[in-house]
Amino acid sequence: MIPRRIPALLYFISYIWLALCEPASKHIIEFDDNHIEQTLAGSDFSFIYFYSDGCAYCAQFEPEFEYLSILYNNITDDKSNSKVQILKTNAIRNKKISQLFSVNKYPTLKLLNFRTKEIVSYKDSRNLENLVKFMTEKTQLLPNFDNVNSNIHFVQSDIEQFIGSPSKDTLIVFTVPHIQEWEDYEYPSHFYQELAQSEFKEDIEFVLVDVNKLVDNDFLAKYAVSNFPSMIYFTKEGKFKTYHTLLQDATTNNLLNKNLISEFLETLSDSSLSNGEWYDNYSDFSVKIFDEKTYSANKPVRKFGFNNVQGSKSNSELTIDDEYDLLVQNIGL
To answer: Quick one: pLDDT at residue 26?
Structure first.
């Protein structure tokens, strides 16, 4: 009689075997001592990652390296000649390559200019932002974000098309790239990219609006979006919830980071105004925003009107029309 634990053990072993045999990312190019010259001659620039088995720092760097490979491999000139390639090699097993590049510790990163034979060692911190800066400076080549398999819709016009999906709710984040936490929103390692790849992706369409790239501001005016970063969540049924979309004092303006967005999504049913305010339809929203003077869901401290601009009336003196005109002025319409 076969013990009951045996099938479970066999399943576990087969699972580990499949995981170990899973093919590497198609963007990663690995080479060895038998293909040194033909590999390096295949591109103007070769950025090489030397690693060793069992190296904890190498394992930690692997995700960043894969992102870098995605962004830079397959960049070619007009004749389809490779301009740059991101390579990796096991420095312990491939001693010829290690000796050629004088590598004796791991991980080591080096850039080869094949035409000039110049070799530059990378010595900065091993994060994607610094790696991209290094590559751009040394090769004069920009990363190819079209290679990134992103679940985010980057929208410059016609934002309305993503509202009212029959199968998914929609989260729209409004930002500008110079704001803290949002400088590198296109990078695969950015937290909004990671959220869009998480368990939320089954139920939510993720949209990002870089306000600097918007073709027109009609949507911003319609939904009174004048603070960045901020977000609006639309349900399939037509309800929506705003979060910090109105202007606030700089001292009370919350940064929008991964934890805040995750908390917002996990507490959508929460009626607390600190987590935004639900509207059943646009008519209810327009009445509240444009015909009333209390915006507590978006302005937790200042409850009347929009932020003052220099030389404007005090909030208590503003009429409803004045407040709307001020909103339009502040968002640049």
So the answer is: 61
Q: Which two tokens stand for residue 123?
A: 């010595």
d(CA 279, CA 265): 16
Per DSSP, what are the bridge partners of residue 174? 209, 230
Q: What domain count does the chain have?
A: 2
Burial annotation 209-246 (CB, 10 A radius, 16+ → b, else e) = bbbeebeeeebbbebbbbbbbbbbbbbeeeebbbbbbb
Q: What is the DSSP letter of 313?
A: P
Higher local confidence (pLDDT), 84 or 189: 84
Q: Are residues 166 and 250 in the same domain?
A: yes
Task: Assess contact for 8 and 2: CB atoms under 8 A.
Answer: no
Out of 124, 146, 168, a domain closes at: 146
Q: Write down which residue in 146, 180, 214 finishes a domain.
A: 146
Q: Residue 38, exposed/middle/buried by CB under 10 A (0-12, 13-18, 19+)?
A: exposed
Q: How far apart, in whole angstroms, are the C-alpha atoms of residue 166 and residue 279?
A: 19
The answer to whether residue 318 is domain-embedded is no
Q: Is the pLDDT of residue 253 over 60?
A: no
The torsion angles phi and psi of 108, rounded to 5 degrees, stand at: -125, 140
Question: Do 46 and 85 touch, CB atoms closer than 8 A?
Answer: yes
Domain around 56: 29-146
318-333 mean pLDDT:
57
First and final C-alpha spacing in the chain: 79
Nearest alpha carbon to residue 28 among 68, 55, 77: 68
pLDDT, tens digit, 9 for 90 and up, residues 116-131 = 999 999 999 998 889 9
Work out the angle at residue 179's Cα, subtended by the Cα atoms of residues 204 and 139, and round it to the nearest 5 degrees.
Answer: 95
Token pair 């959220």 is found at 195
> Are residues 183 and 224 part of one domain?
yes
Same domain? 169 vs 86: no
